[in-house]
Amino acid sequence: MKVLISSCVLGNPVRWNGANKKSDFIQDWAQDNNITLIPVCPEQRLLGVPRRPIRMTQNGPVVEAWAGDEEVYDSLEDTSRSILNEHPDLCGFIGLANSPTCGMSAGVRKRGATIRGAMHRVTDVPTCEVNQLRDERGRESFLNRLKKHRSNKIMNE
């Protein structure tokens, strides 16, 4: 099964400041479960490294994402869609908490609530954050969702 994963989780230096958020356990778990992890980073693809951190803000009815003085909300969604479209055999996505593109809940100033990051908003495959896979129950739950998605995809072809 092919699963996209936030590139920084695999140790790649793609965060805004060139750092990573490596999680050592994830590669062993993936290998044990016949999962191929494909590293992706919409922010790095769109803005490079280093870059200004992205800050999301509610502006009336609209959420905006600012990288310095550049508004990038729509561009982040477009880049995320582009990445997803490059992988038609995709079964899932593993993101990173609090990321504006890869987090399941990303903070938005002046909103009073969080929103899903772009990679989670624009896909129909099962998604989670790497921290949800730290215990056996979370890993089993996500693996079952991946298998169900793959099975449904095969049946619909």
Number of strands: 9
Task: Please trace the helix and strand order, writing H or E for each element.
Answer: EHEHEEEHEEEHEH
Query: Strand count, sense and closure of the main sheet?
Result: 4 strands, parallel
Distance N terminus to C terminus? 16 Å
Fraction of helical residues: 25-40%
Please give the order of strands in the largest beta sheet: 2-1-6-9
**Low-confidence runs:** none
Strand content: 15-25%
Average per-residue pLDDT, rounded, comes to: 95
* Rg (C-alpha, Å): 16 Å
Shape: globular
Helix- and strand-based class? Answer: alpha/beta
Q: What's the number of domains?
A: 1
Number of helix segments? Answer: 5
Kindly describe this structure:
- The protein has 157 residues and is α/β, with parallel strands linked by helices.
- The chain has one domain.
- Helix content is 32%, strand content 24%.
- The two termini are 16 Å apart.
Structure summary:
The chain is α/β, with parallel strands linked by helices and 157 residues long. The protein has 5 helices and 9 strands; from the N terminus they run βαβαβββαβββαβα. The relative contact order is 0.17.
Protein traits:
157 residues; alpha/beta; four-stranded parallel sheet; 5 helices; 32% helix; globular
